[in-house]
Amino acid sequence: MSETGPGREIHSLSAAIRSAQVVVPCADLQATMDYFIERLGFRVEVIFPADAPATAVISGHGVTFRLETGGENHRSPTLRLLVDPSALPVNTPHALQLPNGMRVVLVDANPPIELPEAKQEFVISRAGSADEWGAGRAGMQYRDLIPTRLGGRFVASHISIPEGGPVPDYVHYHRVRFQMIFCKAGWVRVAYEDQGPAFVLSAGDCVLQPPEIRHRVLEASPGLEVIEVGCPALHETFADHDLLLPNDRVDRDRRFGGQQFVRHIARDETWTPWKMAGFEVRDTGIAAATNGLAGVSVLRSSAESSGTIRHDGEFLFFFILHGELDVRGDGVGSHQLHENESCVIPAGAEFELRAKPQLEMLAVALPGNILAA
Predict the structure, then answer these.
(1) pLDDT of 96
(2) CB-based burial label for 234 (10 Å; 0-12, 13-18, 19+)
(3) What domains can be seen in the chain, in order of their start residue?
(4) Nearest-angstrom CA–CA distance, 283 and 291
(5) What does the pLDDT look like over 288-318, one tens digit per residue?
């Protein structure tokens, strides 16, 4: 660097700085947030992960705090500077220290989405006790369907709002590669950016949430249940306090991160034969909207049916909506899945599926052609 000394170093970075956050370690994130928001008038800017929040960025009165649970608690305060790396002076270190002991950490203000290498494994999620449910964002209850996260690449959650009524949500968006929501039970009223008036997602309906589309959950019926699948597993939820939803602009063809919003209404769709004898499929249109990146379908069997499946993709997930499914594979044995249970089928191995009559299950795959009829 052309200038020396702590003060000169910080000054020379000014052109690259986009925003600043003071890092505040806390043992109880929710309690700390509640105090800042309810008593001091702060508001949430970012929170993650949604199913078990551990980090939140809040702002108010001209200052921004980054609340962090766990990790290293520094004796001296830490200033987190979000920067444009291309504007930094050559050889700028990622961490600095001011004369008063304050640590200064430089991070990319708009980092690329990190995709951990996909881990292929057979995963079974059983519907067990209420202890499996944990408190998540906006008062929602989360049940983790893939505890291993397949190396951090995928997350699948069974989400519930037991009491129903207005949801304490705000306009927000996610930096993701893929994300979908399927309504399993009850209904939820939601609003999406440039998609017209708020609408109700009923049991059997689903939506594709393209990357960074603004949206808000407004109201839910008692006993609402949805299934959410996203990639990567760890992604941030950003608040947008400037956009009101629903908004006046309607652009059904708009693309967000190369993907188009999808609202699949179950009652308007038809069933067609699937590639496995005895099964029918209801396609959601998500494969077309993501240019083949991902596919989401509902599969059903009206009689006892069986067949084998094998794929060479990165992800195949089944969630049982109704009925029973037997899954058998070499090295993993035979497993009977019931309602609210799920499995991940790894690539490269052949599995036998045996469906009982009246089976209905949600199927999510990357790439989408795994589910093609």
Answers:
(1) 82
(2) middle
(3) 6-108 (3.30.720.120), 127-262 (2.60.120.10), 268-371 (2.60.120.10)
(4) 14
(5) 999 999 999 999 998 899 999 999 999 999 9
185 touches 203 (CB < 8 A): yes
Query: Tokens 């020379």 sit at which residue?
Result: 12
Could you say which DSSP state residue 195 is in? B
In the DSSP assignment, the letter for residue 16 is G
pLDDT of residue 40: 82
Q: Which of 56, 37, 40 is nearest to 48 (CA)?
A: 56
pTM for the structure as a whole: 0.86
Which H or E run contains 351? strand 351-355
Would you say 365 and 313 are in contact if contact means Cβ atoms under 8 Å apart? yes
pLDDT at position 366: 98
- Residue among 360, 316, 317 at smallest CA distance from 338: 360
Quick one: pLDDT at residue 11? 57
Burial of residue 227 (number of CB atoms within 10 Å: 0-12, 13-18, 19+): buried
Based on the number of CB atoms within 10 Å of its own CB, is 90 exposed (0-12), middle (13-18) or buried (19 or more)?
A: exposed
Q: Return the pLDDT at 73.
A: 53
CA pair distance 240, 175, nearest whole angstrom? 13
DSSP per position, 44-84: EEEEE-SSS--EEEEEETTEEEEEE-SS---SS-EEEEEE-
Check residue 176 and report its DSSP letter: -
- Report d(CA 197, CA 194) in Å as an integer: 9
Pairing of strands 123-125, 187-192: unpaired
Rounded Cα distance between 126 and 358, Å, is 20
DSSP states of 266-301 = GGG---EE-SSTTEEEEE-SHHHHTTTS-EEEEEEE
Per-run averaged pLDDT (10 residues), the chain, 373 residues: 44 83 88 87 93 92 88 67 90 79 86 92 87 79 94 96 91 97 98 97 98 97 97 95 94 96 95 93 97 97 92 97 96 95 96 94 97 84
Query: What is the pairing mode between strands 342-344 and 315-322?
Result: antiparallel
CB 353 within 8 A of CB 325: yes
The predicted structure's pLDDT at residue 138: 73
| Cα–Cα dist 322/141, whole Å | 21
Distance CA 317, CA 254 (A): 28
